[in-house]
Specification:
Layout: E1 3-9, H1 15-29, E2 33-37, E3 49-52, H2 59-66, H3 70-82, H4 85-94, E4 99-103, H5 109-112, H6 116-126, E5 130-138, H7 145-162, E6 166-171, H8 186-190, H9 199-205, H10 212-228, E7 234-235, H11 241-255, H12 259-262, H13 269-275, H14 286-292, H15 294-311
Parallel strand pairs: 1-4, 1-5, 2-3, 2-4, 5-6, 6-7
Length: about 350
């Protein structure tokens, strides 16, 4: 039974960076992984693209032939894909049981009210795919109450529309310490606690928000999110191994991924860490980890990883390559580059 992640999010939330980083991370732990580009406007991908929607239809062709704008063109492209599902089905069959990452466009219409994307993945479920929707949001939205509440509303709508196992992720969390101090700890935002505490800060953000009309509107939106009680967030720094490990564990649980038989028979650094509950961050640690003592935790985690390598005698069962050095492009600093041969054969039991 193949597994897949459906990577959603607004423009700039880090979808392609996430797909690239997760592909590298899975390669390092010995899990076979392929990335499918579903963005008809994305002609340059950092990751190796196993299947590309641009081989079927491109945004440029749609805009020229049908006189549509960028957003309308992307919606048309997915309607085209929905009516040519055999192209996607045949391409996925060639990938076998490889773990799939679907890199989707940033147009929010696709996962808030347009039905083509949902219909496409419902058909993939009928093919036997176990899907998990990963909705990414830039952690910068935490810096302004209006951005945060708007993002909550968008996230809730996506969860209701896609109707899939759903993980919401605040990306670029390692940057949060460089922004202005937040009025509350990070767990307030990740757990979506009592939003009434934000109303005062929301009114301070803009004079227009102080009118009774906007106050009632803001309270209604906050109550709507709280009444559904569905939205919460994981956090992610894509270049941090521990952060990637924690998120992948959450995703595996949501999708029912049986990593015991899929990662090989030998104990690897990955398997040891997955069983080591103490190495996983709890909610109460998030503020300290990413804001209060970020540098100290970075250093401690690097030492812990080195000690794990020493305890296994340097034989991890999987290739753990050198990290990408720091440079001007810090998005991938600290991530292991993809490897050709991991030393682990991925085996899944056939049903």
């Amino acid at each position: 039974m193949p597994f897949a992640q459906l990577v959603l999010g607004s423009p700039g939330s880090g979808k392609s960076t996430y797909c690239d980083g997760m592909h590298q991370f899975m390669s390092a732990i010995g899990r076979e992984c392929s990335v499918v580009n579903l963005d008809p406007a994305n002609d340059k991908t950092n990751y190796p693209c196993a299947l590309d929607i641009r081989d079927l239809v491109t945004l440029e062709e749609i805009m020229n032939d049908d006189q549509l704008g960028p957003n309308g063109g992307v919606l048309y492209a997915f309607e085209e894909l929905e009516h040519n599902m055999e192209w996607l089905e045949n391409g996925l069959k060639e990938l076998g049981d490889s773990y799939i990452l679907f890199d989707c466009p940033g147009q929010v219409e696709l996962y808030t009210h347009h039905n083509s994307l949902r219909n496409i993945f419902f058909k993939l479920q009928k093919m036997g795919y176990r899907l998990v929707a990963i909705h990414l949001s830039d952690s910068f939205c935490l810096t302004q109450p209006s951005l945060y509440i708007s993002n909550l509303l968008l996230t809730l709508r996506a969860m209701l529309q896609m109707d899939l196992p759903h993980i919401n992720v605040l990306t670029k969390i390692d940057k949060i310490s460089s922004y202005d101090p937040l009025p509350f700890n990070l767990d307030y935002y990740t757990e979506v606690q009592d939003l009434s505490y934000l109303m005062t800060y929301l009114e301070e953000e803009s004079p227009a928000m102080r009118s009774d009309k906007f106050r009632r509107l803001n309270e209604a939106v906050a109550n709507l999110v709280e009444n559904f009680s569905l939205v919460r967030f994981e956090v992610l720094a894509v270049e941090n191994k521990q952060s990637m490990m924690q998120l992948l564990r959450v995703i595996d649980r949501a999708g029912g991924y049986a990593f015991g038989s899929a990662e090989g028979a030998n104990d690897t650094v990955w398997q040891v860490a997955m069983r080591n509950e103490g190495s996983m961050m709890e909610v109460q640690d998030i503020q300290e980890r990413w804001v209060d003592a970020k540098d100290a935790y970075d250093e401690a985690e690097e030492k812990e990883w080195e000690e794990q390598l020493k305890r296994t005698g340097g034989d991890t069962g999987a290739t753990t390559p050198e990290l990408i050095p720091d440079d001007d492009d810090d998005e991938f600093d600290g991530m292991p580059p993809p490897t050709g041969e991991s030393g682990i054969k991925v085996v899944r039991k056939k049903e």
